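A.,

Following up on our hallway conversation. Structure tokens first:
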């Protein structure tokens, strides 16, 4: 009986010792902490954009008549001055011939009257009246020539045809839409910028230097040419708080077309920015927090304000100081006001192992 009690006591002491040893090991768990890093970097901001041709116009009929000829095809590249459409010109040719005959007749009358006036046979007023009739006839002739020229629809600039709104033989009224024509040699890209970011960009702009931007196309590929922000609208939109920017992109290969969409990337330099890893933060009710280790090695949550977001990095606007120690790993394993053991990692080493785009 004594031997059994001795074995049980030994087992109890062994179990108690193992439990104490395990508890001690748990208390000795060390967490990894670090400090914010001060570094010059850049912030890349993206904005949804609309892509427009530098010239995009509607081609409309200037005279009434039947569409007699179509000299181009949908999607075709045309040159300035190239014939595109022909509206039946017979009536306007007849009007031109009539105006030419009338002008010729009046000119003969004028020349006869001038000879008589030079011989003092007719009064100067008769010559002036004849000259007025000649001027009127020439004006009507010029008008007839204009009307006839309106039956020939020519390309006003180099561009690309859109689809046809009419077909051969259609009866056209004045102003009817024929097609649209786009000049895609350059593209205007419009995007909206919030007021605060607009002020940041203007404050950091150097003199009259123009901002350079990149275009990410709908297939997530980067457009190979750089755009220049040449125009900023005068007024903010009171409903959205945004202002419209317009960037111009060269389009030598015609890759971009009118009506496309994409995203504009603008690069903003950040001097002496405070950087922390995103994994060191957590969110409560859409607010960002970090765990700061106080002088007693206790964990304290603190709200921070984010100035910009980079890949795996937050740029902190307020809420932290340079010498603050922030919990880097194990955020879900600690509680508020809990005292912990930790190891401090150098911030530049921590940042170096993240995918940071910085200069």
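Then the amino acids I'd put at each of the 359 positions:
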């Amino acid at each position: 009986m004594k031997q059994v009690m001795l074995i049980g006591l030994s087992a109890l002491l062994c179990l108690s010792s193992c439990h104490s040893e395990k508890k001690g090991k748990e208390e000795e768990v060390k967490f990894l902490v670090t400090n914010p890093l001060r570094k010059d970097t850049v912030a890349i901001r993206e904005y949804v954009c609309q892509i427009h041709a530098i010239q995009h116009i509607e081609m409309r009929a200037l005279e009434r008549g039947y569409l007699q000829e179509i000299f181009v095809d949908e999607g075709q590249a045309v040159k300035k001055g190239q014939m595109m459409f022909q509206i039946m010109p017979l009536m306007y040719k007849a009007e031109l011939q009539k105006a030419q005959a009338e002008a010729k007749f009046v000119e003969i009358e004028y020349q006869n009257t001038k000879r008589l006036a030079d011989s003092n046979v007719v009064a100067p007023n008769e010559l002036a009246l004849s000259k007025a009739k000649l001027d009127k006839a020439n004006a009507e002739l010029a008008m007839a020539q204009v009307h006839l020229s309106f039956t020939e629809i020519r390309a006003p600039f180099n561009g690309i045809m859109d689809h046809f709104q009419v077909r051969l033989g259609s009866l056209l009224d004045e102003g009817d839409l024929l097609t649209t024509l786009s000049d895609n040699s350059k593209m205007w890209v419009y995007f909206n910028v919030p007021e605060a970011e607009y002020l940041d960009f203007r404050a950091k702009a150097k003199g009259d230097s123009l901002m350079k931007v990149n275009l990410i196309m709908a297939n997530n590929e980067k457009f190979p040419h750089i755009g220049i922000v040449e125009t900023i609208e005068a007024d903010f939109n009171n409903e959205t708080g945004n202002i419209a920017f317009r960037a111009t992109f060269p389009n030598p290969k015609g890759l971009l077309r009118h009506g496309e969409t994409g995203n504009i990337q603008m690069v903003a330099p950040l001097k002496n920015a405070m950087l922390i890893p995103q994994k060191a933060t957590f969110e409560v009710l859409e607010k960002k927090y970090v765990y700061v280790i106080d002088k007693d090695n206790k964990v304290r949550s603190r709200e921070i304000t984010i100035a910009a977001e980079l890949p795996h990095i937050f740029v902190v606007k307020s809420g932290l100081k340079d010498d603050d120690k922030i919990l880097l790993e194990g955020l879900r394993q600690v509680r508020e006001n809990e005292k912990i053991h930790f190891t401090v990692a150098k911030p530049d080493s921590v940042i170096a192992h993240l995918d940071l785009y910085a200069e």
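The first helix runs from residue 2 to 27. Curious whether your intuition agrees with the design.

B.
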